[in-house]
Prior knowledge:
The chain is α/β, with parallel strands linked by helices.
Amino acid sequence: MTHSALLVMDLQKAIVDRxxxxxxxxxxxxxxxxxRRAGVPVVYVVIGFRPGHPETRSSPQxxxxxxxxxxxxxxxxxxxxxxxxxxxESIVTKKRVSAFAGSDLDLVLRGGAIxxxxxxxxxxxxxxLSTLRQAADLDYRLTVLADGCGDAxxxxxxxxxxxxxxxxxxxxxxxxxxxxxx
Length: 182
């Protein structure tokens, strides 16, 4: 039997605020609400670092972050209020692009007997792509909610969701996924 979880990835205020689509957050919010109604666990994945960012020093991508970014107390690091977690939902902190990198996500999922991941998040070419690839290597079944993801480059988003992701995942829309839960 398949046990699914909805991953809500990098929907932190500083990241969501960079997306020009004002209609973005209602889509993952609908997925979260539907998952909760159907009893599908919702797992939030966030990027987070210690004060001083000691874990970023070797990373060309993350070492350039401003001091204090994505640390406790950074208002931009909080999960966007449109998709805020409930107190009983897991929040996993990662240290790199993939939701699995530097986190205990695999332990949380395996502890819940989860074998199917439904992916939503920002950005399609970042956390979604990296998580999909690593999750496939870890033998998870995968679904990507294409309109529950977003990218600064719409063409990159289109190529990934239309051509790359279908090789390893079912790609659908938030509304189609919700309809399948009923």
